[in-house]
Amino acid sequence: PIRLEAGEYVDALLRMTDEGSMTAPLKLAEHDHLLREEGTRQWSNGVLSGVLGLVGIYALVLYLRMRRSIFGWLGALAAASFLQWLFYHWGQASLWIPAESRAWVVNRMVVASFGITSFCCFYFFVVACELEKYRPRLTRTIIGLAWLALANAILVFVMPFHIGIAVLFVSGPTGLILL
User: Fold this and answer.
1) Contact at 8 Å (CB) between 74 and 124?
2) What sign does the CA torsion over 138, 140, 141, 143 have?
3) Tens of pLDDT along 26-63?
4) What's the rounded Cα separation, in Å, for the pair 124 and 126?
5) Confidence (pLDDT) at 151
6) Less packed terminus of the chain by CB within 10 Å, N or C?
7) Mean pLDDT comparison of 3-12, 86-95, 160-169, highest-scoring range
8) Residues 65, 67, 71, 73, Cα dihedral to 10°
9) What does the DSSP assignment read for 103-125?
10) φ and ψ of 154, to 5 deg
11) Is 176 exposed, middle or buried (0-12, 13-18, 19+ CB in 10 A)?
């Protein structure tokens, strides 16, 4: 910790490098304030994780009882959203990955989790809106984008990272606009 008396100042330079779109917010605050803020953040993370888990379990039970694909896709969407939450929004899942490969893996897991979420989201909405029945050509386009997003989620681990980002930004928003 840096301790400063009234009127003192310190110049500090932090340099962080990353191949992706890393954000590193810097906050200066008193220790008690940081502890209060962390407690609130952990509480909200727990609530969202619990909600996603309950939705996933509820959808799985409904799918097993009713055998309707909409509930299967809802459960898959909840699981994919939870994965996305772990690596992107909450970010603490990166602590499970060894430090020497953490940046490489986490950047790709963020892209992969968004791709998996897109895949599940597109299929959920296609089934929920019965697009196959009313708009078959549009459905084929959306399903194609869903498979592109899923393939990107897998291939981002072997192809150049910037290509994975480009595919993510083409498949996801285009599919959402079409929905």
Assistant:
1) yes
2) positive
3) 666 677 777 777 778 778 888 888 899 999 999 999 99
4) 6
5) 94
6) N
7) 160-169
8) 140
9) HHHHHHHHHHHHHHHHHHHHHHH
10) -90, -45
11) middle
